[in-house]
Every structure is written in structure tokens, then in C-alpha cells.
DNA sequence: GAACCGTGGTG
DNA sequence: TCACCAAGGTT
């Protein structure tokens, strides 16, 4: 849920989710469409599908227990390098560098003296964090969490609160006089309004809103451009977020 | 490596 | 008003 999504927006959904499905087996026992429905408007609904798939994998292949090993976690659907390490470090207390967008920014500023991190690079980012990580297992877990928390609450992307920062005295960016970012530009995020993403979201919201099949005629009312509707619908079908239940009618995945 | 994938808060 | 961005992952 936290992938590319602010913590404050996740928390209520997480609590409701864990009340309904306390264990991987509980989630694995319901159709994937139920996960997509409960995901509501958290965004990136493929994550709901992937989380359900991971719950099935954990239930069938790992005795219903979330794996501890980073290499095993990486085999689960929707678990990438960040999430695998975060689970191993935060849930199980293992010593691994955990690097998210907040940590990257803290290292860029405090250590490298730059206003923004370079675009993410698994090798570089892990090496940089590894060089900072305490040797002690529990201290390493605290350090991972502390770096993320500092980036999320103090060393923020816009308007960092340097006056409140416990690392201000040793911050290389501050010492250098807050130079502007010189490095590679990050790829600009496309506009959402009018995009295929928005149309996908409209169709999926319609599918979530009812337990009856949604027809082509109903879908046609959601957006004026038929070509965009077609692209969005076929994308949802190929992603498994929607299934065709009869000619010209669709629902959330139910198997 | 780059495009793609949602939604909402913020300044 | 709108660009920016948020505990990334997959193809």
C-alpha cells in the first residue's frame, strides 16, 4: 500500500484491511476482485491484485508465513527490492540496507551535499546506505527507519525543515550553502487529467461500485472518447483487473 | 533504461 | 491554477 502512496493516506485502509484479512491465508481465500474492491481509491490497483497473488503464493508455497529471506521475498508478486528489504528489516529485524525515496533524499543532502538525489539506482543506493548502516543488528533497523522518517517529516522534498533537523550540524548540503541541484533531471510525470490513466480509473471505479456486470453501454457513458475507453478497457483486461463475463459485459476478477 | 501504472494533498 | 510528488514494481 505504501508504494508511491503517502503514509497518512494508507493507514485507514491498512487497518480495515487487516481487520478483514488478518493473515495471508484469509486474503488468499477470497476472489482477487474482493481485494481490488477493498483497495478502493488507494491508486495503482494492480497492487491489490499483486498483494492477493502474493497472499496465494505465501499460503501455497510458504506455509502461510511471510518469508524472511530477501531472495525469497523477491520471488513474490509485487514485491520488489525496496519492499523485500523493508519486510526483512522492519518485520523480522534483519540487517539490510533499506532505501526508499526519503532515504535517497537524506543521503543526497546530508552526505553528498546535493539538493536532490540522482535518479534511483539499486547498486549505488544500496552501496551508499550500506556504508552508513551500523554493524549492530538492532541499531541498523533503527537507522533504516530513522533515515526514512527524517526524510518523510523533516528533510522533505519541498521546504525542508532544517531548523528542526537533528543532523543540521553535519549536513553537507547545509554546509555548502544549499546549492541547487545540478544533476540529471528526473523524468516528468505526465498530466493525469485527460490521460488513459484517468479513464482506467473511471472504468475501474464503475466495476468496484457494483456486484453486477458492467456493460459496454454503461462504460460508454464514462468518457467521451471511444478510442481512449477501448485502450483503457483492454488494458484492464490484460492486467487482470477486469474480466469479460459475457459479450459486452465485465466485472472484477472472481477466480 | 524508459514508459507505464492512480489518486489526492500541497504550495 | 497547476506542477510537483508520494515507504515502487513490472514490462
Question: Short description, anyone?
Answer:
The chain is mainly alpha-helical and 255 residues long. 53% of the residues lie in helices and 4% in strands.
What does this structure look like?
Helices cover 53% and strands 4% of the residues. It has helices at 7-20, 24-28, 32-39, 46-61, 70-73, 81-91, 101-111, 122-132, 137-153, 172-175, 196-209, 216-220, 226-239; strands at 214-215, 243-246, 249-251. A hairpin with a 2-residue loop joins strand 2 (243-246) and strand 3 (249-251). Helix 3 (32-39) packs across helix 4 (46-61), helix 7 (101-111) crosses helix 9 and helix 11 (196-209) packs across helix 13 (226-239). The protein binds a DNA duplex (11 and 11 nucleotides) through residues 1-10, 41-47, 50, 77-83, 86, 98, 100-103, 119-120, 148, 151-152, 157-159, 187-193, 195-198, 200-201, 204, 235, 239. Residues 1-153 form the HhH-GPD domain. InterPro entries: DNA_glycosylase, Endonuclease3_FeS-loop_motif, Endouclease-III_FeS-bd_BS, HhH-GPD_domain, HhH_base_excis_C, MIG/MutY. Belongs to the Nth/MutY family. Its cofactor is [4Fe-4S] cluster.
Amino acid at each position: 500500500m505504501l508504494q508511491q502512496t503517502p503514509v497518512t493516506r494508507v493507514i485507514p485502509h491498512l487497518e480495515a484491511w487487516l481487520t478483514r484479512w488478518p493473515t495471508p491465508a484469509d486474503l488468499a481465500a477470497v476472489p482477487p476482485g474482493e481485494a481490488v474492491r477493498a483497495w478502493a481509491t488507494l491508486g495503482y490497483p494492480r497492487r491489490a491484485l499483486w498483494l492477493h497473488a502474493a497472499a496465494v503464493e505465501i499460503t501455497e508455497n510458504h506455509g502461510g508465513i511471510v518469508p524472511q529471506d530477501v531472495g525469497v521475498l523477491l520471488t513474490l508478486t509485487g514485491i520488489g527490492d525496496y519492499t523485500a528489504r523493508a519486510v526483512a528489516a522492519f518485520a523480522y529485524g534483519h540487517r539490510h540496507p533499506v532505501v526508499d525515496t526519503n532515504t535517497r533524499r537524506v543521503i543526497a543532502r546530508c552526505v553528498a551535499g546535493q539538493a536532490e538525489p540522482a535518479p534511483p539506482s539499486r547498486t549505488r543506493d544500496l552501496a551508499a546506505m550500506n556504508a552508513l548502516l551500523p554493524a549492530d543488528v538492532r541499531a541498523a533497523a533503527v537507522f533504516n527507519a530513522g533515515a526514512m522518517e527524517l526524510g518523510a517529516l523533516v528533510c522533505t522534498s519541498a521546504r525542508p525543515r532544517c531548523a528542526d533537523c537533528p543532523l543540521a550540524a553535519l549536513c553537507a548540503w547545509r554546509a555548502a550553502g544549499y546549492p541547487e541541484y545540478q544533476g540529471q533531471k528526473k523524468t516528468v510525470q505526465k498530466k493525469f487529467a485527460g490521460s488513459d490513466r484517468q479513464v482506467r480509473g473511471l472504468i475501474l471505479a464503475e466495476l468496484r461500485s457494483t456486484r453486477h456486470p458492467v456493460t459496454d453501454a454503461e462504460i460508454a457513458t464514462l468518457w467521451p472518447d471511444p478510442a481512449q475507453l477501448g485502450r483503457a478497457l483492454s488494458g484492464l483486461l490484460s492486467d487482470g483487473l477486469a474480466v469479460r463475463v459475457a459479450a459486452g459485459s465485465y466485472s472484477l476478477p472472481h477466480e
